[in-house]
Amino acid sequence: MSETNTTLPVTVPEEETAALMAHWRAANYLAVGQIYLMDNPLLTEALRPEHIKPRLLGHWGTSPGLNLVYTHLNRVIKAREKSALCVWGPGHGGPAVIANSWLEGSYSETYPDISRDADGMARLFRQFSFPGGVPSHVAPGTPGSIHEGGELGYSLSHAYGAAFDNPDLLVACVIGDGEAETGPLAASWHSNKFLDPVHDGAVLPILHLNGYKIANPTVLARIPEAELDALLRGYGHDVLYVSGDDPATVHRDMARAMGTALDRISLIQRTAREEDIAERPHWPMIVLRTPKGWTGPATVDGLPVEGTWRAHQVPLPGVRENPEHLRQLEAWLRSYRPEELFDRDGRPRPEVMACVPAGPRRLGATPHANGGLLLRDLPVPPLERYAMKVDRPGAALHEPTHVLGDLLEAVMESTAGRRDFRVVGPDETASNRLQALYKATGKAWQAGTLAVDEHLDRHGRVMEILSEHTCQGWLEGYLLTGRHGFFSCYEAFAHIVDSMVNQHIKWLKVSRALPWRRPIASLNYLLTSHVWRQDHNGFSHQDPGFVDHVLNKAPEVVRVYLPPDTNTLLSVAEHVLHSRDYVNVIVAGKQPCFDWLTLDEARAHCARGAGVWDWAGTEREGEEPDVILACAGDVPTQEILAAALLIRRHLPRLAVRVVNVVDLARLLPDTKHPHGLSDSQYDALFTPDKPVIFAYHGYPWLIHRLAYRHTGHPNLHVRGYQESGTTTTPFDMVVRNDMDRYRLVMDVIDRVPGLGVRATRARQAMEDARLRHHAWIREHGTDLPEVTDWTWQPLPVDTGTRA
Amino acid sequence: MSETNTTLPVTVPEEETAALMAHWRAANYLAVGQIYLMDNPLLTEALRPEHIKPRLLGHWGTSPGLNLVYTHLNRVIKAREKSALCVWGPGHGGPAVIANSWLEGSYSETYPDISRDADGMARLFRQFSFPGGVPSHVAPGTPGSIHEGGELGYSLSHAYGAAFDNPDLLVACVIGDGEAETGPLAASWHSNKFLDPVHDGAVLPILHLNGYKIANPTVLARIPEAELDALLRGYGHDVLYVSGDDPATVHRDMARAMGTALDRISLIQRTAREEDIAERPHWPMIVLRTPKGWTGPATVDGLPVEGTWRAHQVPLPGVRENPEHLRQLEAWLRSYRPEELFDRDGRPRPEVMACVPAGPRRLGATPHANGGLLLRDLPVPPLERYAMKVDRPGAALHEPTHVLGDLLEAVMESTAGRRDFRVVGPDETASNRLQALYKATGKAWQAGTLAVDEHLDRHGRVMEILSEHTCQGWLEGYLLTGRHGFFSCYEAFAHIVDSMVNQHIKWLKVSRALPWRRPIASLNYLLTSHVWRQDHNGFSHQDPGFVDHVLNKAPEVVRVYLPPDTNTLLSVAEHVLHSRDYVNVIVAGKQPCFDWLTLDEARAHCARGAGVWDWAGTEREGEEPDVILACAGDVPTQEILAAALLIRRHLPRLAVRVVNVVDLARLLPDTKHPHGLSDSQYDALFTPDKPVIFAYHGYPWLIHRLAYRHTGHPNLHVRGYQESGTTTTPFDMVVRNDMDRYRLVMDVIDRVPGLGVRATRARQAMEDARLRHHAWIREHGTDLPEVTDWTWQPLPVDTGTRA
User: Fold this and answer.
1) What's the rounded Cα separation, in Å, for the pair A301 and A323?
2) Last residue within a domain, chosen from B593, B624, B650
3) Which residue, among B213, B216, B464, B472, would best test binding to A if mutated, counting the most A CBs under 10 Å from its CB?
4) Predicted ipTM?
5) B540 touches chain A (CB under 8 A)
């Protein structure tokens, strides 16, 4: 993959322009064909209504621009023997990218039934947007793609993610002027302050101003040139302009601009790598201004189409019914002169292929776009080195994410040479207690530095920018190109990327069904600084619903873990770092938390995903418990254990089982999720008929939504976050949401029948404790000493004889 | 509220600078006091540990900058008799905004127990971040605020929303350099291409470069000045710079910059309003570069703090235990010379108050920040004008959102003079079939235009930008300042604003508990181009989960409606347009949909929220039905009715009840949502023991999560979207997700016992129909004629005698 820095001549020979234009015409022809044709692919006969698809679906408007870019990337890749990848921001222009892949042969290699001949062309056309065929957008099934492009905004961050730690790779990125209006895209321009010219590859943004969105002009196409130029230079770029609607001129100018851009990239990289210059370079970018729907019908039914928003989808909508539309379509298709482009058998003629590279250099064949091909196992060190020693449950406190930081440091350290692991976060890595990472690497930073700065590093692999969108986009691009990563985020603000994670899960779901797509490393979230501990920030920072959001998605892809202590967090982290093709969500606190399990116990518990904590319960061998206290999450686990202790003191004869759930999908039936429990497994844990008091980290109804199919569901009573919070103490938070130990004991009393007068007294004691809390906090502003000093008592106070 | 365009002298008199600095010192003192002090507010005695709060929480770093801006806004507001509002992007600097409100008196007017004297100051300090007191961020309880500032990114779009249609209002907006890295903020800079200098007020962005986030430098503070300048000019601004760490110099420069900015704003507005100049102006903005934690401790424990990220929260963390920290805190507080700022009784001295405006001009007292004070009822015309005539159910098809467009057009028309209604959407207003709006107004647009453009209008009130974030931010700002609006959005991409709507719902929830906050117009979403009809776009555009997300939030705020036809959509729309303090989510299709109900029936049905459609069922008076077919959403309703028809043909003796649910919260128990049903109401609709086959628009488990507490829940069997989709036909979508009519009939057969051999034959017929579908679509790429030609048959085929 080494690069030969052949510099292209500034003028492009006439015959080369002709070849570029032939390739472009071929790609345009194939794009139109996909949108319209069922039959007669080479126009060997006059076009008739029965050749036309019954449903005309697809996006023509952006396609000629994408075809132009693909054609010119082909040229520089071939001439310079570059290793390249392209992210197609306007990925709804699926016909264009598919057309080019078919032309270069990568499509037929991936899908042998779509051969590179007339028969294959007919199938290529027919399958597009046809039920059971291929979707209208660039999708996982499109060779060479890592980016769907249906939801706009993520192309540039994906491109940077692909370029990180790929020093020899050129990542071109087409950004539509519609997409450029989105927040995520607008933020991601500043990614160039994080691109290391030594260890990273190059990103070449190509801002395509075709002027219109669905129904409106775009902002960037309608501000003065000088303003646009200032903006892009303000983003830190050296800008090259290509503009026009005369194909020959645009092709010549585009070839020159591409050549210049690649020359400048080479120079930047050489300077940085050979001369160790620390100054942030001004990377080149291209502004390409061409008409929307270029080369399509100029007017339809008397209204302008080419160069307007009307070219967005299908410019001629009535082809099957309207003879004039049919005539226009035939003229449009024939304007590309297909007979000059394809031989009698439908194979592209040599002139069309003159600029197309070969083998894995083809954009549709690069292994970087099928990252699993390049993926190596991550060296995760033995957990024993980091695990807490636990003599007995609840005797010591540790900060789980702090210890996780030590583990991640080791992973970071051991990948220092291979550089295939990054940790991203929106300015929260240290706040989330992962600062041990800085012993192994620094924070990527190419902007200015001051003496007071800490851990900034031109070559760092911790990525921090105050944009969850950019973090997510970087990480997705990094993973999709065959590397590993970890995203730590404040729990509430994971919602900022709800829509992005949707698209990534959809991508993985579809990819899993494609045998040629190799599994990639999972996208791992650590959600911390969670809902129960927002002492500084209060209500705006309290939302545990990202888990709910993710669990709506494909069960084969999503996994949610709530480790209750440090060793379980380590065990979960080890698991997710080795996993493939998942989105793993880990919810774990950064505040001191009791150690409950030894490492061995933690591993066994996490492997089961949910289990009985015998040492915490009071049930007797061979007898059913009277009540189950269940918990998921660190704070709920603490409150459940405190409740178990109170029950031992106040209701010593009650047989209590304590169940902890780490893997939330265990609560689903096994028919609904690969980790789900069968009915008998569920009953074995929770019993079919005893009351279950469940303290859950997030919104309580999520537990019902997961467990409703199980027999015991009517006995399930869940406490959790009920959207009640402010800047207050940790214990006040659980009281406000009725998940405190006292309320949990009251719940037990309310649901276990026949407890008698002792229960009445216990209930009163619980109510008194809550009143004590309210009085104390009003007076002192802190939590009750009986709560802050609470520790787990391993020996039963009194198990007595059961009533 | 008219403005007198007094131009300030370019030099600021010495005594005025002194007064500005005194005010600023007072605000800084009060900010530090809030973070630290329980007692001894005026430092009348030496500071002792017991004066210090037990939990030190809050954000000092941004506070001196906010105090500086507040002080200088005061000055220009007073001098120019401006009506102004400020959006505090770094709203986590709660102590600063509260301090200024207390100084100007608006705090004590809002909260009389926090009087403007020593006692009040003591309470002001104690309540801050104290359990039961006020939260640490700017929050609904903060006078003068419309913006929480806990979640970063939305300040500038809020500011523009506030300025639209408020021609005499100045909206200042402080943007932190951390916030500036977020996507939503980055996108919102282009809002100036949508600000009408004639009918809108002015937005004055103040980019505050204090250099650091939680733990990192900020990008914008570390790029070269020339690059920053290019960027901001590229955003279309005329930039004024204020920079330094010498208070006197910065105050003088800030006064000058504020004066210049307001002069330019006046000139722009005068030119546009008096001379009708159409050219987009370059609005002024200010870049303010001052140290983070300015005037705080320079170093703590030997490490630099002032001017670094270490000043972000509480610079001296150990004050109660560490005598050196205590000493530093006392020196810090005394550095503001409180005795010069407050009299013996704790009242601000005249010099401090010299620049502070009076009455409603005070930032903490402007009615624009308590929009309900200014809100007028929206003139919604009689629905009769727009309603479809329905002779019998299912006889005609209409596009529901198209008809809604006619209604919205009338609202737009009738608010042409008052200008207090806007429709926002990410380039989808026409795609969502609301184009009738353009008969009443155009699309707001101040950038360049071409002859081919349609409906662009410098004074338009339809707002389109391809950024859901910006649309949402604009609309929130518009509503919070007392106006009305409507957001139409592709259903799947509403998730882009998940996190924003969270914050708005939280704002409304807290506001509702504040008697002084008057109700504002609801935030109304129309989610259309929904999951079942993504013919062009496929899987990436399919996600019905926004409803799930919203229903996790405060039940007193959230409402979800799924009108099954055009007249029900009109009825729902009328309701939400009149409602207050809600977030209303309407899910409705834009594709042709059968009319089921007359307007009167629709109104009655929507008022009930859920009801039996007698005309569709076959149950007999006084007898229980055998099965309930329930539905929510337009496509599910069609499939359920088709299933009902199939049942009549194949199982004529089965007594079927059809229930339609419009208001999704009806499914909750009445203890959990104000719209919830009591157990007996639920049983009356769904029976306690008969099988219910429920076709739901979105994820099926949402229905279980809502209904699980009801007695009949174990009989509830829900079909819905199961995350299975691609570019395919409408009917194939329901088949892929097992929500088609044939599957629903099979579900009935599987769940109603004792149907005998006729059921076996019916089941086979259904399976055959599904096979027919698969074969047809493979062959033709379209839906089965028996599906596309299907219409509702009003007369029962055979009700016969029941078995």
Assistant:
1) 12
2) B593
3) B216
4) 0.96
5) yes
